[in-house]
Amino acid sequence: MKYYVVIPAHNEEAFLKLTLDSVVQQSLLPEKVVVVNDHSTDGTEQIIDSFTVKYDFIEKLNTTSSTLHMPGSKVVNAFKKGLEVLDDAYDFIVKLDADLILPPHYFERIAAIFSVNKKVGLAGGFVYEEAPEGQWLLNHPMNKDHVRGAFKAYSKDCFKAIGGLQSSMGWDTVDELLCRYHGFDIITDESLIVKHLRPTGKGYNKKAKLLQGEAMYKMRYGFLLTVIASAKMAIKQQKAKVLIHNLKGYFQAKRNGVPLMVNEAEGKFIRNYRFQNIKKKLF
Asked: Membrane spanning segments where (predicted)?
């Protein structure tokens, strides 16, 4: 199977070489890799150049977006810039973060998943992060059928059906909900261990604290589902302020008429799907 990879990179000199090393060592190599150098001020561009010289399937794209590391919008905007230089001659497309180490057989396995079942729209492995003691431990706060935003792989049919990625906090939740809305399956493979070199959320700006609630509004969760989802997040993070911030972000977005990410039919599906899962866990 043919696949393309887009890697948004902003000041990633500490990790990018390791990520690209793991990409060029894949048992099934990508047809094209676009590394989007998003206004980096460190040695990121030089690292990209060292790979483009050696590998003709790797391309550099320089672009500039906001200097703020806001979850969702910055990385997705950079991904979209990379997407613009690619054609549609792929079987699946990958949004890959610049701070990962993939196992050598990663994309061979992902390709096999898509090949075996044409209903699969989204596939991926699992994130492991290094503990202070040095061991690599699973970091997967969501359900096991969730693919982390760091390494999303979409079939072309699914990617087109969901309309690509949303430049917003919640993009890596709404994509999976729309994937299911359009009848695609999501497959995760626990044998695919991906090392994440930067702790999750480390670079997020303080302004991001209201964006989770805003995202719930934009996904048409409604008030009750927003309360339930936010309370669950607060309990999991052991921070009561999460619930307060989420609700504040939700009502602020509603008051300001922030554009929604999904239409009415998609919103109804999302609410029903979420409530069904809640009922399954309760009963």
From this structure: none
